[in-house]
């Protein structure tokens, strides 16, 4: 008998098995070398083609769902039409206006606008002397002047229209128009305003405008500024650069050192940035408000009697210092108008009650400076600015300006096309009535308010056909995902034909749709890109439909109880979107579902026959529950949860973690590698590259991330810097550390992973008695899972740098809990069940909340966009925010193939094995697809619900973005798992020379 070479023992399971070298390599010893090489080449090519086919399944799903989401969003998130009409001095909205004037005689020659970003109203109103809140009584000057000199200073609550993002507020403050919900998404993409606005009106009259501060103004009005000093506005960690720049340049401007001027605008950002970084109740906020208090006093000293000074905020901030939503604290800002000459009428009510809409500033400023009211304006003049300072109010002047504003609104209404007979009759009656001036002003205001409410309703009309088209594409895609998922489960693999068919058909149909859409009248309402996307979807559906129908009609095996349990968990999560109460408590619902899974697994473990498996199963089931409860301790409350929720993610009322969380992250740096090591040791996989990745790399990565937050602590917690380090050096050091982490994890580590260092080791020993050589192959029984998981660790470490210290600790819990899930799936033999993908999806959704997020705009942690860069840099800033927001979803989707490959030895049928891994990925996509479609259907069904824009619309937007990210990560995971399978197959099935 021929010598078969050394005897190999595979180590890592419950027992060691001795096999020969030829058995290990899955090849008959008798085959010739040439035959084996040819067979290996054919097998490798077949596996490569199959892997491409599997990847193209996910690409097809990605394209279809992208089109569906885009169409639905287009129909649901409408933007208002923009008219380029301009008001002119000669074309007055009413007859009999002031002769020889441009609508109204100007009251001031010059105006200075000081915008203190996020100047919440309660920041300027005095509180009890014993108040211990840092933002109280730190900016008293505005209130004191309005109280002592009401004819010179006027203070009022300044109500913003949501969304409370700076770009949208500036548009409202200059055009007098209302934003729509989707406008919040364009806060980082300002472009020149096309609508009529008071800045354009003033420059059209030959006025000179000087600007300094927030560079958003430069993007919107850059062509209208004679003098401009813009500063980067979105680096929320920088509290001083913009403010110092405004202070440096505004006083020389007022002294005419930069030339003559008529309007000066200074937009300061320190208060807003202090809120974002620390929250309002922080010493830095007090320092900023005190600085603003002194700055405003200095500006007052510089102006003359012919200059109007307006100090205002663009929005407020919530208790954490964020904004973007529609809570009362975010909507309430401040307006203070000052003139050295007596000018303002007595406030019509107390300061705590008087409220002015921000769009009311537009007609007020326009008429005071002698300019026409912008064409798109829906605001109404502020009464106190036109009744005069005398005891007997000048109602004649108020009546005139009220008629001008109402007339312009009526003109806009006719342009918009909603001029009904009732409004026209009322307007004609108003012009011909013999009412006294006060009554006329009141009637005009009522008319304007009624029109404003009509426009609010008009701008929430939906494009129903687009919504139905989007839902139709998404529902078909859901059926496609389900049919692929079921086929792969039943048959192990699928031959998808030519992988490039998807690209060919999609491209041809998209190009055809792009051109045809411009000639079909019924499609004129859709932009060309949407028509192209729709036709691409039709093309992809056409090649998928026969396959889907065939496999949906096949008889399926009976569903086991674990699949039913998975469906039950998915349905409960999906149904939570049918109620606003359930939606706002989604985080708690997810915790209950995960705990339920852990308890069921714990109980099911006692039915296992092997006592060792029973013990291990019960242990992991219990740990799954404990880890869920630990993660649930980290909470971020939303306004609607009220007193039933207490935020623990941030310390007190701030936007920063407790400094103790940095210590916790350092502890995790040493604890997490030991935890991962313990899982690897169960299969003897803690060998080879695992010792480098886990024992050294993972620990070093987390420690480096912790070091970044230590450096950040010198700013965040006001730690004292060493004398030889200045703030600029500190900032550079932080950037260097962040980029070092990203370079090490995304470039070096992934290159090392791709190079293919497996977590196996051959331990060769010679038996002195029989002379036989025995080689123990350590890690053989988990060779796929241990290798693929190293990629997960790379991405985990990269995501970690974009998350705050407590979130880093929580993500470490997620990694631990995911490994626990993999063990439970293996012990209970559930690698082909839907329960694994569903629980992975639940984990991603649950940890989204535990890492300090909610389905609200203010909950987005915008500041992390400046961790890798100093300024907004596409795509790094955007990817940083995405990694912070959806890090748990990215990680759990990436771990989809591990549901099959964990604790699996080299397969003799790699094509079928790869199909099983794609099946698990499709299961994750299927779960997220169900959740996303359900949230969209509920948002559409409840489109007249009072809480639509506050609760349901943000949740659907989160679901849409999450689904897109899941699809992209699934394609990456499929490619990576194919690499793992083919690489390992090439080693353990290569011919022996």
UniProtKB/TrEMBL annotation:
Keywords: Endoplasmic reticulum, Glycoprotein, GPI-anchor biosynthesis, Membrane, Transferase, Transmembrane, Transmembrane helix
Biological or metabolic pathway of the protein: Glycolipid biosynthesis; glycosylphosphatidylinositol-anchor biosynthesis
SUPFAM superfamilies: Alkaline phosphatase-like
Superkingdom in the source lineage: Eukaryota
Pfam family, one: Phosphodiest
Annotated signal peptide: none
Subcellular location: Endoplasmic reticulum membrane
Protein's name according to its UniProt entry: GPI ethanolamine phosphate transferase 3, catalytic subunit
Naturally occurring in which organism (per UniProt): Trichomonascus ciferrii
Lineage of producing organism: Eukaryota, Fungi, Dikarya, Ascomycota, Saccharomycotina
């Amino acid at each position: 008998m021929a010598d078969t070479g050394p005897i190999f023992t595979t180590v890592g399971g419950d027992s060691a098995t001795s096999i020969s070298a030829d058995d290990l390599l899955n090849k008959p010893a008798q085959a010739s070398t040439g035959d084996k090489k040819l067979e290996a080449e054919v097998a490798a090519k077949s596996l490569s083609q199959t892997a491409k086919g599997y990847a193209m399944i996910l690409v097809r799903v990605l394209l279809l769902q992208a089109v569906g989401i885009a169409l639905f969003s287009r129909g649901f998130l409408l933007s208002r039409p923009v008219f380029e009409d301009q008001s002119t001095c000669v074309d007055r909205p009413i007859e009999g206006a002031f002769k020889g004037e441009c609508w109204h005689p100007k009251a001031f020659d010059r105006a200075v606008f000081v915008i203190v970003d996020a100047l919440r109203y309660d920041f300027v109103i005095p509180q009890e002397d014993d108040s211990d809140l840092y933002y109280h009584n730190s900016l008293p000057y505005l209130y004191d002047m309005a109280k002592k000199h009401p004819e010179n200073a006027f203070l009022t609550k300044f109500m913003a229209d949501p969304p409370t993002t700076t770009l949208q507020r500036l548009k409202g403050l200059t055009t007098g128009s209302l934003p729509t919900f989707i406008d919040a998404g364009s806060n980082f993409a300002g472009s020149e305003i096309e609508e009529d606005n008071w800045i354009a009106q003033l420059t059209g009259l030959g006025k000179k405008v000087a600007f300094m501060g927030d560079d958003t103004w430069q993007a919107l009005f850059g062509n209208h500024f004679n003098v401009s000093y813009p500063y980067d506005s979105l680096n929320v960690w920088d509290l001083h650069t913009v403010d110092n720049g405004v202070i440096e340049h505004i006083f020389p401007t007022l002294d005419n050192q930069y030339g003559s001027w008529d309007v000066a605008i200074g937009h300061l950002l320190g208060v807003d940035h202090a809120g974002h970084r620390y929250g309002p109740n922080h010493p830095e906020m007090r320092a900023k408000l005190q600085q603003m208090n002194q700055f405003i006093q200095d500006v007052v000293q510089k102006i003359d009697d012919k200059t109007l000074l307006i100090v205002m905020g663009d929005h407020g901030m919530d208790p954490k210092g964020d904004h973007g939503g529609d809570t009362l604290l975010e909507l309430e800002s401040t307006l203070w108008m000052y003139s050295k000459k007596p000018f303002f009428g007595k406030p019509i009510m107390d300061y705590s009650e008087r409220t002015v809409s921000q769009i009311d500033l537009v007609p007020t400023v326009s008429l005071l400076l002698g300019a026409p009211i912008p064409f798109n304006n829906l605001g109404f003049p502020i009464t106190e600015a036109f009744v005069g300072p005398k005891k007997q109010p000048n109602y004649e002047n108020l009546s005139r300006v009220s008629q001008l504003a109402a007339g312009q609104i009526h003109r806009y209404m006719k342009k918009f096309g909603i001029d009904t007979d009732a409004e026209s009759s009322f307007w004609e009656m108003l012009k011909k009535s013999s009412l006294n001036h006060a009554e006329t002003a009141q009637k005009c205001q009522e008319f304007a308010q009624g029109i404003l409410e009509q426009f609010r309703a008009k701008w929430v009309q939906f494009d129903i056909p687009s919504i139905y088209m989007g839902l139709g594409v998404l529902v078909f895609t859901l059926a496609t995902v389900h049919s692929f998922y079921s086929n792969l489960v039943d048959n192990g693999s699928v031959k998808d034909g030519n992988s490039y068919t998807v690209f060919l058909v999609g491209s041809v149909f998209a190009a055809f749709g792009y051109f045809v859409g411009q000639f079909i009248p019924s499609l004129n309402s859709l932009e060309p890109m949407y028509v192209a996307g729709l036709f691409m979807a039709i093309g992809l559906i056409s090649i998928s439909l026969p396959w889907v129908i065939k496999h949906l009609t096949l008889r399926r095996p009976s569903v086991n109880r674990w699949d039913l349990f998975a469906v039950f968990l998915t349905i409960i999560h999906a149904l939570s979107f049918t109620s606003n109460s359930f939606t706002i408590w989604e985080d708690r619902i997810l915790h209950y579902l995960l705990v339920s899974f852990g308890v069921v697994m714990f109980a099911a473990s006692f039915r296992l026959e092997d006592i060792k498996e029973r013990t291990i199963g019960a242990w992991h089931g219990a740990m799954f529950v404990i880890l869920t409860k630990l993660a649930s301790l980290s909470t971020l409350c939303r306004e609607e949860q009220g007193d039933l929720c207490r935020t623990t993610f941030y310390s007190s009322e701030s936007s920063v973690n407790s400094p103790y969380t940095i210590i916790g992250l350092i502890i995790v740096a040493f604890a997490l590698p030991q935890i991962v090591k313990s899982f690897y040791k169960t299969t003897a996989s803690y060998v080879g590259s695992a010792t480098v990745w886990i024992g050294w790399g993972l620990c070093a990565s987390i420690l480096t991330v912790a070091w970044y937050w230590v450096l950040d602590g010198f700013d965040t917690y006001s730690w004292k810097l060493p004398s030889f380090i200045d703030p600029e050096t500190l900032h550079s050091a932080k950037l260097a550390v962040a980029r070092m982490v990203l370079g090490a994890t995304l470039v070096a580590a992934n290159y090392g992973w791709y190079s293919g260092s497996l977590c196996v080791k051959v331990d060769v020993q010679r038996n002195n008695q029989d002379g036989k050589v025995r080689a123990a192959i350590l890690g053989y029984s988990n060779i796929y899972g241990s290798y693929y998981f190293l990629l997960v660790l790379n991405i985990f470490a990269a995501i970690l740098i974009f998350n705050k210290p407590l979130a880093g600790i929580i993500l470490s819990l997620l990694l631990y809990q995911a490994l626990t899930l993999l063990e439970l799936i293996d012990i209970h033999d559930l690698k082909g069940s839907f329960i694994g993908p569903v629980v992975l999806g639940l984990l991603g959704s649950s940890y989204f909340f535990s890492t300090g997020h909610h389905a609200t705009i203010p909950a987005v942690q915008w500041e992390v966009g400046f961790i890798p860069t100093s300024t907004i840099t596409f795509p790094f800033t955007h990817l940083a925010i995405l990694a912070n927001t959806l890090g748990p979803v990215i990680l759990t989707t990436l771990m989809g193939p591990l549901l099959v490959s964990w604790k699996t030895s080299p397969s003799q049928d790699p094509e079928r094995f790869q199909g099983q891994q794609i099946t698990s990925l499709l299961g994750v996509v299927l779960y997220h697809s169900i959740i996303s479609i359900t949230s969209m259907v509920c948002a559409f069904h409840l489109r007249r619900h009072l809480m639509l824009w506050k609760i349901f619309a943000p949740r659907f937007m989160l679901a849409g973005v999450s689904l897109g990210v899941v699809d992209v990560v699934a394609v990456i995971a499929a490619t990576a798992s194919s690499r793992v399978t083919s690489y390992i197959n090439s080693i353990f099935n290569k011919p022996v020379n």
